[in-house]
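Blackboard transcription, Thursday session:
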Amino acid sequence: MVKYMKYVHVRDVLEGKYDGKKVALRGWVHRIRKQKTMVFALLRDHSGVVQTVIKQGSVSNQTYADADRMLVESLITLEGVAKADPRAEGGYEVQVDKLQVLQFAEEFPITEDQSVEFLNDYRHLWLRSRKITNILKVRDEVFYSSREYLRKNGFYETTSPMFVATMGEEGAEMFEVDYFGRKAYLTQTSQMHLEPQIVALERVFTLAPSFRAEKSRTRKHLTEYWHLEVEEAWCDHEANLKRQEELISYICQSVAKNRREELKELGVDYAKLEQVKPPFDRITYGEAVEICSKAGLDIKWGEDIRTEAEEILTRDSDKFLFVQFYPKEIKSFYMKHNEADPRTYRNDDLLAPRGFGEIIGGSQREDEESRIIENLQRIGDDPAKYKWYIELRKYGSVEHSGFGVGIDRLITWMLNLEHIRECVPFPRDVRRLYP
Ligand code: 4AD
Ligand code: MG
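(Written on the board underneath:)
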């Protein structure tokens, strides 16, 4: 085994920190080009890709033969001198004097121009592409900055069960599991189990998967997605909207600031994210229906704002838009009655700009026991099933609100991705359970 110096990261080389100096690098062969007496190998590590050159005569014969033999995705370590070179991708080239191939890769199955279906079947190998690597780095920043904002604002991170016994959102979209002979479901939302926790902690959130047996195969639906759910005591509808716009703005600002290189490589203008600032635009559900019917959509008061309608509402705008006060018949039983218009709840959907549509669902929660029972009876559900949830309203019932951010949707919007599955390491949708 050759003894190597301390390894540096590709990014450090590309930033010129080692110009003219000897470096040791380790990583994977990203691309390779062989000439008569030279092998050009792009070396990739987590931080980037740099050109290296192995010259016959500058290394031992055995080493040169190894370099000549290796294929893309081989695992290597090397030492050489880093030199600025405008012809090389990234502006630097490493002239190699020691090379060790730790694993000779077989012929890599992924080449250019393969179908989306093929690439998804090889997701375990495709993950290492520059595009997905960059997307995952943005994803990391979204997770990190969400937590950072919430911690700074006095929220505790907590957890909720994934196995539940009752409906959270849509009965038809629940995954049923056999729980030792009893029926259980994979949770659609952690909200119901966050609400009891605010009486202990006042401000809480959880970042966890939610499950929806969505048959709809759209660019925005997964069966398992990451859900950031926030729940806050002493918080009404108005304060809840403020919380949502502050959080989303904070995340966008953080990505613009800390992932600028990745955004550039992904072809996304960071300025678009820098512009995301409170206050967001607001309309009522009633106004939304009017706008959509004026635009020629066949929609009446009481019907849901579907994808097409959301697109009409946001297509000409660079700003996020709250749609608030939806009719009771199309929203959930736990939402707060709206005194100002008793047909509606004090709730909101947050729609992302440029036609993207919903990324958040939120509401003030109903804190009166009798109203929750009335709502359940109206939709033909049995209040007895929600005994524990209703019981919360008997002991120190506090005004409170919360919301759930579809994290994968937020990233899809940020990066203008064609499909939500692009931003998840191993996406799950109606057809996909492999790899
Ligand atoms: O609007 P939803 O159904 O709201 C709730 O679950 C509330 N209980 C949240 C809360 O108040 N704590 O879901 C919230 C968000 C949606 O706005 C959407 O962004 C995302 O979750 N979402 C999905 N994302 C990907 N794939 C799916 N199938 C999704 N379904 C919902
Ligand atoms: Mg919703």
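Lecturer's comment: The chain has a mean pLDDT of 96.
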